[in-house]
Structure formats: C-alpha cells, structure tokens
Amino acid sequence: MRIAVIGTGYVGLVSGVCFAEFGFEVVCIDNNIAKIKELQSGRVPIYEPGLNKLIHKNVAAKRLSFTADAHDGVKSADIVFIAVGTPSKLDGSADLSYVYQAVDEISSLINRDAVLVIKSTVPVGTTMAIKKFLLDKGVDVDVAFNPEFLKEGVAVEDFMHPDRVILGVESEKARRILSQAYRPLYVFNTPIIFTNLETAELAKYASNAFLAMKVTFINEVANLCEVCGADVNEVAIAVGLDRRIGDKFLQAGPGYGGSCFPKDTSALRDFALKLGVEMPLLNETINSNGARRAKMVEKIIQACGNDVREKNIAILGVTFKANTDDMRNSPSIDVVNFLVERGAHIKIYDPSFSEQAKQIFHEQEFSNDAYSNCDGADAVVILTDWSEFRALNLRELKKRVKNPLLIDLRNIYALSEASAAGFIYHSVGRAIQPAGRAAKTSRSSILKKDC
Predict the structure, then answer these.
(1) Which CATH number fits domain 2-194: 3.40.50.720, 3.40.50.150, 3.40.50.450, 3.50.50.60?
(2) 439 pLDDT band (50/70/90 cuts)?
(3) Whether residue 28 lies in the annotated active site
(4) Would you say the C-alpha torsion 12, 124, 180, 102 has a positive or negative sign?
(5) Taking a C-beta distance cutoff of 8 angstroms, is the pair 27, 66 a contact?
(6) Is 441 helix (H, G, I), strand (E, B) or coil?
(7) What's the rounded Cα separation, in Å, for the pair 336 and 160?
(8) Structural element, H or E, at residue 286
C-alpha cells in the first residue's frame, strides 16, 4: 500500500513516519521547500522523542521519502492524508484555507481509486463539504476523516499504541482500505471505531474540549485549596483514583497551551454558536484558562514581596509542555512578558533549546544549563515540568541563588523537600512552605498508606 501525506507539520510528519514504520511506502509532501530539504538531509525540524531514529531507519529502508513535488507521490497513492494546519482566525473559528488549498492542489493528481483522508482538525461538516468541492471540480473520490490524538512528547508511542482509532467513512471501500492501513494495530487489540464523517469530526473537538475542562477544573480547585488549607496534589490523587474520572490532566499549573486545546476549544464554541447552540461550560473553560496566566504572574510578584522591579528572575522551562520545543500558545509567553513589563530581568533555560523560544524571547538571556541560569537569581520560577527539573540538586541550587525563593508552578517538589534544602517554596494549590520547616503532609505519605 502506498500512502501520501500532505503537510510535514507535527501531525503529518509523525503520522507519515509511523505509517512507514508499519511497513507501508510513504511519501511526505510539503510546499515548504526549506523544510523538505532539511528532512531530506536527515535533520528533523521538530523536537519529538524517538522520531529522529524512525526517520533515519525508514529512509534507509526506502519506505519513507520527502518531496515538495506532489505529482508522483499523490498519483500513485492508495491513501492521501491531508494533515495541514487549521489555525484560529481572530473570531476563534478554524481557518480552513490551508486544507482547501491542499485539496485543490491535489485534485487533478489524485487516483480515482484512492481514498482522500482529512487528518487536520476541522469543524463538523467540513469533510463532506470537501467531497462536494471536489465533485464541483469533476473529481469523484471517496473521502474520510481520521482525527489524530497525538500528545506532543509521546506522539510516536501514541501513534503506535493508541487508545483508539476513529475513522469517519462514507463507503465500504473507504472502510476496507483504511482497515488495511491500521491493520498492524489489530495485534494490540486497539479499538478501531468506524462511524460517519460528522461523528468523527465532532469526537475530536469533544475530546480536546473535555481534557481542557479537566485542566481548568483542577486549576480552579487549586485556587480554593490555597485559601482553605487543602493540598491540590492530594485532592487530585483522591479524585483521580476514581476510575470514572482518571488521573490524567489533573495536574494544577499555569493553564493549558499548545497548538490544540486553545484553538480547538475556540473553534468548537464558534461552530456551536453558528448552529444556535450555547455551551456555557466550554465558554467558562476558555475564559478561566485565559485568566490563569495573569493569576500566575500575580503569584510570582506576591512571592517576590509585591515588587519585581530590577529583580533577577530565573525561568526554568518555557515550552508549553515537557519533551517538545513547541512554543505555540505557551503560558510562558504571557508570564515572561508580564514580568518584563513589571520591570523584572529574565534569564531562561529550557532543555529543548527551542529556536522558537529564542525568537519569541529574543531580548532575554538564555543559559545552557539549569544551575548557571540560576546564578545570582532573586527568584527561581519553574514553568515547564521537564524531567530534568525533577532531579535538581536543590542544595546546590541554593548556593547559586541570591535569594532562596523557589516558585514552582508545576508542583514538582514535595513541600518538605524544597524547605529542607533551604528554599522558601511557593507552589500551586498548596501552602507556602517556609525554609527549613517540615510539611504536615506530603504526597509520598499518602501513597504509602494502606487503604
């Protein structure tokens, strides 16, 4: 089976590489010539664990190739995936121009026996509209919708061992061909769900909106914990042990970011409103998350004695999550910019060495490691929960800083651990821990109890 993937962004590149790993012949196509040349030379333009190795392996096996010329790759393909971006417009709706541009460009090339699969996240009804768009051009091909559920940082694992695969189809031919594409997953008993186009499209938006609500909910619980004496980490453990709820996305912090949650929640709200359906819960999720970043800035300023002017603040981690170099809608952008506006001097270290981050924060100083980044700091702020930050030698860190103030917006450390190292420790949804004082409870003590 031959597969063509249009778009070598995050979704397209990971999907194409993993299909090649399944054993199919895959060509990844993009009109960004510079990116294609980079991939052809063996350089991977995104930071994603395991992806580099798979690219080199499958290129060497001649199952994977990259090109800016769609002609041969699309003409011979049994399946053509569209995996281009659908960014938010100013009104919050999804910008489908890249999708339609891609479809238009391949319309005269696609094999009529092939299946055209939309993998970009699009509003309900888009795939059927694309079918009509093609018919109006005299092109009659089967269309399908196959949403992606890849988490940055573990995307390869997510593709190779997914929780489920959702396939919106309109014909038995599309069902048969896509069954073959995902046949390698049958050995893992992966649920393969076939449904209509509209259900598959909405399932993607509903999934991301629900996860965004979980993140927002635990952050609002954290706000309550800070004034009532509860510990949000321990509340999250207790709540997450309920199998109906689960423990994923119940980590309090600076709010959700990235390329998916912000744009997909806004697009779903816009789509619903156009149909006359109000979604107040979704609306409050968006508003609450939007206010979260300003609240985190105020937490930092209050911890610094209500004034950060001329203070040196060391930032650890700026990507929107660990194990990625992605800066899209990262909470750090607002947090750092707000602090700079208040007069703070910012120094940054991120383990990804993200070029995106260096472009965004081009006026800030970057360090090559966490410890030197904290030299002479008046405050250390953890913004991203990289594993590297979980194993910092806090006593060594304390020797480096000017003022032993640690503001952990990811709740990486136990209260007693940071205090024992001599830090005044501020976290999210937990009590402020003075230096040298033992905490009343800790996460580890709960985990050791016999229930």
Answers:
(1) 3.40.50.720
(2) low
(3) no
(4) negative
(5) yes
(6) coil
(7) 36
(8) helix 280-303
Q: Which residue has the tokens 């006026």?
A: 363
Q: What is the pTM (predicted TM-score) of this model?
A: 0.90
Q: Are 253 and 264 in contact (CB under 8 A)?
A: no
Q: Which of 253, 251, 275, 271 is nearest to 263 (CA)?
A: 271
**Gap between the Cα atoms of 266 and 327, Å rounded:** 19
pLDDT in tens, 99-110: 999 999 999 999
Residue with tokens 């399932």: 203
β-strands 165-169, 142-145 pairing: antiparallel
Where are the alpha helices (H) located in 308-361, listed in sequence order?
331-341, 355-360
**What are the domain boundaries of the chain?**
2-194, 210-447
> What is the per-residue pLDDT across 72-85, written as a single tens digit (0 to 9) for each?
899 999 999 999 99
Inter-CA distances, 28 with 32, 115, 419, Å:
12, 16, 51
Burial class from Cβ neighbours inside 10 Å (0-12, 13-18, 19+) for residue 354 reads: buried
Alpha helices, H only, 392-432 = 394-400, 415-420
On the question of a common fold for 2-194 and 210-447, the answer reads yes
Residue type, 389: F
Output the average pLDDT for the chain: 94
Q: Which of 18, 28, 225, 260 is catalytic?
A: 260
Which structure tokens are listed for 275? 């149909």
The CATH architecture to which 210-447 belongs is 3-Layer(aba) Sandwich (3.40)
Q: What is the secondary structure of 97-127 as a DSSP string?
A: HHHHHHHHHHTTTS-TTSEEEE-S---TTHH
